[in-house]
Design goal:
Elements: H1 2-28, E1 65-69, E2 74-79, E3 93-97, E4 106-107, E5 113-121, E6 127-133, E7 138-143, E8 151-152, E9 170-172, E10 178-180, E11 187-191, E12 195-199, E13 202-209, E14 212-229, E15 236-241, E16 247-253, E17 258-265, E18 271-277, E19 280-285, E20 288-292, E21 300-301, H2 307-315
Antiparallel strand pairs: 1-2, 2-3, 3-4, 5-6, 6-7, 7-8, 9-10, 11-12, 12-13, 13-14, 14-15, 15-16, 16-17, 18-19, 19-20, 20-21
Length: 316
């Protein structure tokens, strides 16, 4: 009888170990140490973009990214960063002119700025960036020399901004007041006069205007969404990932609930940001800044030869 009891206990112990192993795998995606299977398995079927650069690369661009442009072709780009020093991830800035036809140069950030929550490129070429310093306090800086130098702004009431809390479903008005938002926005594009477009991580975006109720809009099937002003008052340029395209640019027309694709980029690079002004459309795709001057019909990568120039060089 005792022998049968021991056998039964041993069998139960084996079953317990098997159950624990299956439970561990369900929780962690792997078997416990010393029991790991040699079989491989899929954790997720969601496509992921290749990293856009190594931390040691001064020109690498990693999201979240904020992007601005004016009709004259002045461009300001910033990674969001983080104000808390324990993250060791301060914001980085690039500024330049499209007419220079070179990759945007890195510029020294304003002293003390660690996190960018909003930015603006004004019609005269001056730049403004607003965010948080090393104490996570609000700061705003201006530049009139394409980012070569920065001055603390006397006017801290001009930009719509993301909240400092990345989980908060709010945005900050030009007067510094938090207002409810339909999501925890990941990007915001400032427009004149004191208007903005903010993007949710997926599907939705919303328009903002001082003294007016915001309007929530939808870009069906678009994830990693970025939005900018469209070619007319009734439409928006959208950038994001769809089931069929890693990086797609389209025109979203809320009145008709339509999203019409303009371009699906073949490169497996992350769609990071989009901005527009006065007929210019700029798209941050991985490390590349793409420029269109025909409302997204054609694009060229800033700092690279155009197809016409490459053909001429090959012929010679």
């Amino acid at each position: 009888m005792r022998g049968r009891t021991l056998v039964a206990l041993a069998a139960l112990a084996v079953i317990d170990v098997a159950v624990l192993a299956v439970g561990y795998r369900a929780h962690t995606g792997t078997l416990p140490p010393m029991q790991r299977s040699s079989e491989s398995f899929e954790v997720s079927e969601t496509p992921t973009a290749e990293p856009t650069g190594s931390p040691a690369d001064d020109n690498s661009v990693t999201g979240p990214v904020l992007l601005g442009v004016n009709a004259r072709g002045n461009v300001l780009r910033a990674t969001r960063g983080a104000c808390e020093e324990r993250f060791d991830k301060p914001a980085r800035l690039w500024a330049g002119r499209i007419e220079d036809d070179v990759a945007l140069p890195v510029v020294d950030p304003p002293p003390g700025l660690r996190e960018v929550l909003g930015l603006m490129v004004y019609a005269n070429g001056s730049l403004r960036v607003s965010g948080l310093d090393e104490d996570c306090e609000s700061v705003t800086f201006d530049s009139t020399d394409v980012g070569a130098s920065w001055q603390a702004s006397d006017d801290d009431l001009s930009l719509w901004r993301l909240p400092g809390d990345t989980t908060a479903s709010t945005v900050t008005t030009p007067r510094g007041e938090p207002v409810p938002a339909p999501c925890a926005a990941v990007q915001i594009v400032n427009l004149l006069p004191r208007r903005a477009i903010a993007s949710c991580p997926r599907l939705n975006y919303f328009s903002l205007a001082a003294g007016k109720a915001g309007a929530t809009l939808t870009a069906e099937n678009y994830l990693q969404l970025s939005v900018a002003a469209g070619p007319d008052d009734e439409s928006y340029f959208v950038l994001g990932t769809t089931d069929d395209c890693t990086a797609s640019v389209a025109i979203s027309t809320p009145e008709t609930d339509s999203v019409d694709e303009l371009e699906c980029f073949d490169d497996d690079k992350a769609p990071l940001a989009i901005a527009s002004a006065g007929g210019l459309l700029v798209v941050q795709l991985g490390n590349d800044l793409l420029v269109s001057d025909d409302d997204g019909e054609t694009f060229e990568t800033l700092g690279e030869p155009s197809p016409v120039e490459e053909s001429a060089a090959a012929a010679s």
